[in-house]
Specification:
The chain is an alpha/beta fold and 324 residues long. It contains eleven helices and 15 strands.
Protein backbone atom coordinates (compact mmCIF):
# COMPACT_ATOMS: atom_id res chain seq x y z
CA UNK A 1 0.00 0.00 0.00
CA UNK A 2 1.02 3.64 -0.46
CA UNK A 3 1.08 5.49 2.87
CA UNK A 4 -0.33 9.02 2.59
CA UNK A 5 0.85 12.03 4.58
CA UNK A 6 -2.61 12.09 6.21
CA UNK A 7 -1.85 8.61 7.58
CA UNK A 8 1.38 9.92 9.13
CA UNK A 9 -0.45 12.84 10.71
CA UNK A 10 -3.12 10.51 12.06
CA UNK A 11 -0.50 8.28 13.69
CA UNK A 12 1.38 11.25 15.17
CA UNK A 13 -1.85 12.63 16.63
CA UNK A 14 -2.60 9.28 18.24
CA UNK A 15 0.87 9.26 19.82
CA UNK A 16 0.38 12.71 21.36
CA UNK A 17 -3.27 12.36 22.36
CA UNK A 18 -4.77 10.44 25.26
CA UNK A 19 -8.05 9.71 23.51
CA UNK A 20 -9.62 9.55 20.07
CA UNK A 21 -11.36 12.85 20.79
CA UNK A 22 -8.06 14.57 21.65
CA UNK A 23 -6.47 13.27 18.44
CA UNK A 24 -9.51 14.42 16.45
CA UNK A 25 -9.24 17.91 17.92
CA UNK A 26 -5.55 18.07 16.98
CA UNK A 27 -6.41 17.18 13.38
CA UNK A 28 -9.55 19.36 13.31
CA UNK A 29 -11.85 16.46 12.38
CA UNK A 30 -14.72 14.72 14.16
CA UNK A 31 -14.06 11.60 16.27
CA UNK A 32 -16.27 9.39 14.03
CA UNK A 33 -14.37 10.52 10.92
CA UNK A 34 -11.05 9.83 12.63
CA UNK A 35 -12.25 6.40 13.77
CA UNK A 36 -13.16 5.48 10.20
CA UNK A 37 -9.74 6.64 8.93
CA UNK A 38 -8.01 4.61 11.64
CA UNK A 39 -9.92 1.44 10.74
CA UNK A 40 -9.05 1.89 7.04
CA UNK A 41 -5.38 2.38 7.87
CA UNK A 42 -5.34 -0.72 10.09
CA UNK A 43 -7.02 -2.76 7.34
CA UNK A 44 -4.51 -1.56 4.77
CA UNK A 45 -1.53 -2.32 7.03
CA UNK A 46 -2.97 -5.59 8.27
CA UNK A 47 -2.18 -4.79 11.93
CA UNK A 48 -4.04 -3.33 14.90
CA UNK A 49 -2.60 0.07 15.75
CA UNK A 50 -4.71 0.96 18.78
CA UNK A 51 -7.06 -0.54 21.33
CA UNK A 52 -10.08 1.58 22.22
CA UNK A 53 -12.26 1.85 25.28
CA UNK A 54 -15.09 4.26 26.04
CA UNK A 55 -12.67 6.71 27.67
CA UNK A 56 -9.16 5.94 26.47
CA UNK A 57 -7.16 4.98 23.43
CA UNK A 58 -3.94 2.97 23.80
CA UNK A 59 -1.47 2.24 21.05
CA UNK A 60 -0.35 -1.33 20.49
CA UNK A 61 3.36 -2.07 20.16
CA UNK A 62 2.97 -1.94 16.36
CA UNK A 63 0.94 1.25 16.65
CA UNK A 64 3.53 2.96 18.83
CA UNK A 65 6.34 2.03 16.44
CA UNK A 66 4.36 3.29 13.44
CA UNK A 67 3.40 6.50 15.27
CA UNK A 68 6.98 7.30 16.36
CA UNK A 69 8.37 6.71 12.88
CA UNK A 70 5.52 8.77 11.41
CA UNK A 71 6.36 11.65 13.78
CA UNK A 72 10.03 11.45 12.77
CA UNK A 73 9.12 11.52 9.06
CA UNK A 74 6.85 14.54 9.56
CA UNK A 75 9.64 16.35 11.41
CA UNK A 76 12.01 15.62 8.51
CA UNK A 77 9.46 16.99 6.03
CA UNK A 78 9.05 20.13 8.13
CA UNK A 79 12.82 20.51 8.31
CA UNK A 80 13.10 20.14 4.52
CA UNK A 81 10.51 22.87 3.97
CA UNK A 82 12.26 25.13 6.47
CA UNK A 83 15.66 24.61 4.87
CA UNK A 84 14.26 25.53 1.44
CA UNK A 85 12.68 28.68 2.88
CA UNK A 86 15.66 29.88 4.92
CA UNK A 87 17.20 31.74 1.99
CA UNK A 88 14.07 33.87 1.78
CA UNK A 89 14.10 34.19 5.59
CA UNK A 90 10.40 33.35 5.61
CA UNK A 91 9.17 30.95 8.27
CA UNK A 92 5.93 29.12 7.56
CA UNK A 93 3.86 26.37 9.12
CA UNK A 94 2.23 25.98 12.52
CA UNK A 95 3.95 26.63 15.85
CA UNK A 96 2.16 25.48 19.00
CA UNK A 97 3.20 26.93 22.36
CA UNK A 98 1.83 25.95 25.77
CA UNK A 99 2.26 28.02 28.96
CA UNK A 100 0.77 28.45 32.46
CA UNK A 101 -2.28 30.70 32.76
CA UNK A 102 -0.87 33.63 34.74
CA UNK A 103 2.62 33.89 33.25
CA UNK A 104 1.34 32.97 29.81
CA UNK A 105 -1.32 35.67 29.81
CA UNK A 106 0.93 38.40 31.22
CA UNK A 107 4.25 37.68 29.50
CA UNK A 108 4.08 34.99 26.82
CA UNK A 109 1.01 36.27 24.95
CA UNK A 110 2.61 39.70 24.25
CA UNK A 111 5.83 37.99 23.16
CA UNK A 112 3.91 35.67 20.82
CA UNK A 113 2.27 38.75 19.27
CA UNK A 114 5.70 40.34 18.72
CA UNK A 115 7.08 37.11 17.26
CA UNK A 116 4.06 36.86 14.93
CA UNK A 117 4.66 40.37 13.57
CA UNK A 118 8.26 39.41 12.79
CA UNK A 119 7.21 36.17 11.04
CA UNK A 120 3.84 36.80 9.33
CA UNK A 121 4.01 33.51 7.43
CA UNK A 122 3.64 31.47 10.64
CA UNK A 123 0.43 30.21 12.13
CA UNK A 124 0.85 30.54 15.89
CA UNK A 125 -1.20 28.77 18.56
CA UNK A 126 -0.92 29.58 22.28
CA UNK A 127 -2.60 27.24 24.74
CA UNK A 128 -2.77 28.32 28.38
CA UNK A 129 -3.07 25.44 30.83
CA UNK A 130 -3.00 24.89 34.57
CA UNK A 131 -0.17 22.38 34.14
CA UNK A 132 1.39 22.69 30.67
CA UNK A 133 4.06 20.24 31.82
CA UNK A 134 3.85 17.26 31.88
CA UNK A 135 0.56 17.55 29.92
CA UNK A 136 2.51 17.91 26.65
CA UNK A 137 -0.26 17.22 24.13
CA UNK A 138 0.95 18.32 20.69
CA UNK A 139 2.94 21.41 21.69
CA UNK A 140 6.15 22.32 19.88
CA UNK A 141 7.41 24.30 22.88
CA UNK A 142 6.32 24.53 26.51
CA UNK A 143 6.92 27.25 29.07
CA UNK A 144 7.17 25.75 32.56
CA UNK A 145 7.77 27.48 35.90
CA UNK A 146 9.67 25.41 38.46
CA UNK A 147 12.02 22.45 38.43
CA UNK A 148 11.66 19.80 35.71
CA UNK A 149 12.26 16.19 36.69
CA UNK A 150 12.48 13.02 34.61
CA UNK A 151 12.08 14.77 31.29
CA UNK A 152 13.10 13.40 27.90
CA UNK A 153 12.60 16.89 26.48
CA UNK A 154 15.38 19.47 26.18
CA UNK A 155 15.09 22.12 28.92
CA UNK A 156 16.52 25.65 28.71
CA UNK A 157 16.39 27.96 31.73
CA UNK A 158 15.24 31.37 30.49
CA UNK A 159 15.26 33.18 33.85
CA UNK A 160 16.08 32.30 37.46
CA UNK A 161 12.79 33.80 38.78
CA UNK A 162 13.27 34.26 42.51
CA UNK A 163 10.33 34.25 44.89
CA UNK A 164 9.84 37.53 46.71
CA UNK A 165 8.16 37.97 50.09
CA UNK A 166 5.98 41.07 49.83
CA UNK A 167 3.29 43.04 51.65
CA UNK A 168 1.48 46.33 51.10
CA UNK A 169 2.78 49.54 52.73
CA UNK A 170 -0.49 49.78 54.71
CA UNK A 171 -0.09 46.26 56.11
CA UNK A 172 3.51 46.88 57.17
CA UNK A 173 2.58 50.16 58.80
CA UNK A 174 -0.14 48.41 60.82
CA UNK A 175 1.70 45.17 61.65
CA UNK A 176 5.37 46.14 61.49
CA UNK A 177 8.22 45.06 59.21
CA UNK A 178 9.54 41.50 59.70
CA UNK A 179 13.28 41.73 60.32
CA UNK A 180 14.14 38.02 60.52
CA UNK A 181 12.56 34.93 58.96
CA UNK A 182 11.21 33.84 62.35
CA UNK A 183 9.18 37.07 62.52
CA UNK A 184 7.16 35.88 59.50
CA UNK A 185 5.27 33.15 61.39
CA UNK A 186 3.66 35.82 63.60
CA UNK A 187 2.18 37.61 60.58
CA UNK A 188 -0.88 36.98 58.43
CA UNK A 189 0.33 34.97 55.44
CA UNK A 190 -1.29 34.32 52.06
CA UNK A 191 -0.53 30.93 50.48
CA UNK A 192 -0.99 29.71 46.92
CA UNK A 193 -2.08 26.08 46.69
CA UNK A 194 -0.96 24.53 43.40
CA UNK A 195 0.67 21.42 41.92
CA UNK A 196 0.07 19.39 45.12
CA UNK A 197 3.09 21.03 46.76
CA UNK A 198 3.47 21.66 50.49
CA UNK A 199 2.99 25.41 50.13
CA UNK A 200 3.04 26.08 53.89
CA UNK A 201 6.71 25.06 54.15
CA UNK A 202 9.04 27.92 53.20
CA UNK A 203 12.82 27.55 52.91
CA UNK A 204 14.97 30.66 53.26
CA UNK A 205 18.71 31.34 53.50
CA UNK A 206 20.94 34.44 53.76
CA UNK A 207 21.60 35.92 50.33
CA UNK A 208 25.22 36.88 51.03
CA UNK A 209 26.29 33.54 52.53
CA UNK A 210 28.76 31.23 50.81
CA UNK A 211 27.85 27.84 49.38
CA UNK A 212 28.67 25.79 52.49
CA UNK A 213 27.34 28.49 54.78
CA UNK A 214 24.02 28.55 52.94
CA UNK A 215 23.30 24.95 53.88
CA UNK A 216 24.21 25.58 57.51
CA UNK A 217 22.12 28.74 57.86
CA UNK A 218 19.06 27.76 55.85
CA UNK A 219 15.87 28.13 57.85
CA UNK A 220 12.57 26.32 57.37
CA UNK A 221 9.34 28.11 58.21
CA UNK A 222 6.04 26.34 58.73
CA UNK A 223 3.34 28.86 57.82
CA UNK A 224 -0.23 28.75 59.07
CA UNK A 225 -1.99 30.63 56.26
CA UNK A 226 -4.59 33.22 57.12
CA UNK A 227 -5.72 33.15 53.48
CA UNK A 228 -5.17 30.70 50.64
CA UNK A 229 -6.09 30.45 46.97
CA UNK A 230 -5.14 28.38 43.94
CA UNK A 231 -4.56 31.53 41.85
CA UNK A 232 -1.26 33.38 42.23
CA UNK A 233 -2.57 36.64 40.78
CA UNK A 234 -5.41 36.64 43.31
CA UNK A 235 -2.90 36.07 46.13
CA UNK A 236 -0.82 39.02 44.96
CA UNK A 237 -3.91 41.23 44.72
CA UNK A 238 -4.92 40.27 48.28
CA UNK A 239 -1.47 41.30 49.45
CA UNK A 240 -1.84 44.65 47.66
CA UNK A 241 -5.14 45.13 49.53
CA UNK A 242 -3.36 44.72 52.85
CA UNK A 243 -4.42 41.20 53.86
CA UNK A 244 -0.92 39.93 54.64
CA UNK A 245 2.46 38.70 53.42
CA UNK A 246 2.67 36.76 50.15
CA UNK A 247 5.53 34.73 48.66
CA UNK A 248 5.25 35.36 44.94
CA UNK A 249 7.35 34.87 41.81
CA UNK A 250 9.29 37.98 40.90
CA UNK A 251 7.73 38.01 37.40
CA UNK A 252 4.38 38.81 39.04
CA UNK A 253 5.54 40.93 42.00
CA UNK A 254 8.19 43.13 40.32
CA UNK A 255 5.80 45.67 38.79
CA UNK A 256 3.79 46.01 42.01
CA UNK A 257 7.01 46.60 43.96
CA UNK A 258 8.30 49.13 41.40
CA UNK A 259 5.00 51.03 41.54
CA UNK A 260 4.85 51.01 45.34
CA UNK A 261 1.75 48.82 45.68
CA UNK A 262 3.92 46.21 47.44
CA UNK A 263 7.10 46.37 49.49
CA UNK A 264 9.64 43.57 49.29
CA UNK A 265 10.27 42.10 52.75
CA UNK A 266 13.46 40.29 53.92
CA UNK A 267 15.15 41.18 50.63
CA UNK A 268 18.54 40.13 52.06
CA UNK A 269 17.19 36.59 52.41
CA UNK A 270 16.60 34.22 49.50
CA UNK A 271 13.56 31.96 49.23
CA UNK A 272 13.38 28.93 46.92
CA UNK A 273 13.28 30.04 43.30
CA UNK A 274 11.01 28.78 40.50
CA UNK A 275 13.00 29.04 37.25
CA UNK A 276 11.23 29.85 34.00
CA UNK A 277 12.06 26.96 31.68
CA UNK A 278 11.52 26.43 27.95
CA UNK A 279 11.01 22.79 26.94
CA UNK A 280 11.27 21.48 23.38
CA UNK A 281 11.02 17.80 22.38
CA UNK A 282 14.48 16.95 20.95
CA UNK A 283 17.44 18.47 19.15
CA UNK A 284 17.13 16.07 16.20
CA UNK A 285 14.66 17.15 13.56
CA UNK A 286 14.18 20.58 15.16
CA UNK A 287 12.56 22.93 12.67
CA UNK A 288 13.79 26.41 11.85
CA UNK A 289 10.63 27.95 13.34
CA UNK A 290 11.19 26.21 16.68
CA UNK A 291 14.83 27.31 16.70
CA UNK A 292 13.79 30.88 15.93
CA UNK A 293 11.30 30.80 18.81
CA UNK A 294 13.99 29.50 21.19
CA UNK A 295 16.35 32.32 20.29
CA UNK A 296 13.55 34.90 20.54
CA UNK A 297 12.43 33.74 24.01
CA UNK A 298 16.02 33.59 25.27
CA UNK A 299 16.58 37.19 24.19
CA UNK A 300 13.30 38.73 25.34
CA UNK A 301 12.76 36.82 28.59
CA UNK A 302 16.43 37.21 29.46
CA UNK A 303 16.07 40.96 28.97
CA UNK A 304 12.98 41.02 31.22
CA UNK A 305 14.88 39.04 33.88
CA UNK A 306 17.73 41.56 33.89
CA UNK A 307 15.25 44.40 34.38
CA UNK A 308 13.68 42.56 37.32
CA UNK A 309 17.10 41.95 38.85
CA UNK A 310 17.71 45.70 38.80
CA UNK A 311 14.30 46.26 40.42
CA UNK A 312 15.27 43.67 43.03
CA UNK A 313 18.49 45.51 43.86
CA UNK A 314 16.53 48.73 44.24
CA UNK A 315 13.99 46.95 46.48
CA UNK A 316 16.77 45.62 48.73
CA UNK A 317 18.12 49.13 49.06
CA UNK A 318 14.67 50.45 49.99
CA UNK A 319 14.26 47.68 52.59
CA UNK A 320 17.59 48.51 54.22
CA UNK A 321 16.60 52.18 54.37
CA UNK A 322 13.29 51.31 56.06
CA UNK A 323 15.11 49.05 58.54
CA UNK A 324 17.39 51.90 59.57
Amino acid sequence: MMIQIEDLRLAAALLNGTSLSAAARALDVTPPALSIRLRKLEAALGVTLASRTARRLSLTAEGERFAREASALLAQLDGLCDSLQQDARQLTGTLRVSAPFGYGRQHIAPLIAEFARTHPGLRLELELRETPWPDKHDADAIIHIGAVRDSSWIARTLAANERWLCASPAYLQARGLPRTPRDVVRHSCICIRENNEDVTLWHVRPRAAGRGQQRAEQETLRISPAYSTNDGVVARQWAEEGLGLVLRSEWDAADAVAQGRLVRVLADWQFDSAPIVLLVPTRSGRTARVQALIEFFEDRIGRQARMRQEQGRQARGQTRSKAR
